[in-house]
Amino acid sequence: MVSERRKKLHKERNKEFEKEHVGERKRAREKERHEREKEVEKDREKIENDKEREHQRGNQTHREIVTDQEDKVTVKHAENGAIGGPEPMDICTTSTSQPCEIPSSDVTILEGHTSEVCACAWSPKGSLLASGSGDSTARIWTIAEGRCNPDSQNGPLNVLVLKHLRGRTNELSKDVTTLDWNGEGTLLATGSYDGQARIWTTNGELRSTLSKHKGPIFSLKWNKKGDYLLTGSCDKTAIVWDVKAEEWKQQFEFHSGPTLDVDWRNNVSFATCSTDNMIYVCKIGENHPMKTFVGHQGEVNCVKWDPTGSLLASCSDDITAKIWNMKQDKYLHDLREHSKEIYTLRWSPTGPGTNNPNQKLVLASASFDSTVKLWDVELGKLIYSLNGHTHPVYSVAFSPSGEYLASGSHDKSVHIWSLKEGKIVKTYAGNGGIFEVCWNKEGDKIAACFANNTVCVLDFRM
Length: 462
Hints:
globular; 2 helices; 6-stranded antiparallel β-sheet; mainly beta; about 10% helix; 34 strands
């Protein structure tokens, strides 16, 4: 009863906090959505389990397990004249009887967080994995290289706990919302609901606390050189911090709503997007935006520069993704194949200026319509619609080779897709909605962070 009362109190406090910050980040909406969907999910799982039992008893040649037409797990190939790629095909479903389910012997479950895990990131240099949670901590886990050893889960795990509260008890401002490693993998930056950015060493020591924002930080990124950190906040501003001096260098106050995402174009210029539907490209030292991109009709959730910094992709609640360049004001491409809000997008690590220069550059977008879509950015056309999830997809990540894409959804599953074939090659069903997925630099491990307080590391071998 006490625990129930505490939960109720926490929820009420949360509601008050959300009233104060109307239009704040999607996380608040997600929490409500999670509550509503839990019930639906229980029913759906019961139906699916019943169907699965029937299916195993019945005709083995019938390969699709569907609850209704919409949830059919198939790959739709674009019909709008996109080049290449296969015809529609059956793909491996997520049932455990299928060979593509990642076996539990290839999964390490990292336990310790006491609230949902919102963010995770591999160090670019070594075997360190960082995770950030609503429990007011980030953690740095040391993950042994090579195949995972499930027995090691029973032993003491090598983990550092980075506490963000330091004795403060304001429950509402404790979430660690975002984190990013510098290029050397020597420093980890975390952003929190308390509006502070913090920089930590790989030993778990707090190096700097950066205070100037007046609202939660939703996004933060190191520049490539590692001398500046960029933060975007609910207070409608973005700040560039001089890391060495441990102080703010410039605050950019162009948006009229919360800043939802930021992304560096190069070491001195970057893009920001907001609930005000606007995108600005800014430069350190300049008091006005270098470029203003107008075109979205809803909150802009995510902005990402391609590997060379020449194209900017954005996605929005207006159900479109757009591609822009600095030479013109209007978008180059308007990508309109999703049927619900687009939550996030990623560029492939392919094309000119990358480690995979002979492969074509593509863009992936993930939506509340449960699909991931892959785009030909030259033509502005759909290559594949990857239809395997049954709930909103919150995160996508390309493997370092650009051959595979991992996606994580509120349906509790991670799917790994072959981009050559446009189909699922591996899948893992966890025990909570998934907020983020990411690959290590070798491309043989995928981390996923879950709403049930865990982080899972999956061994990936084809």
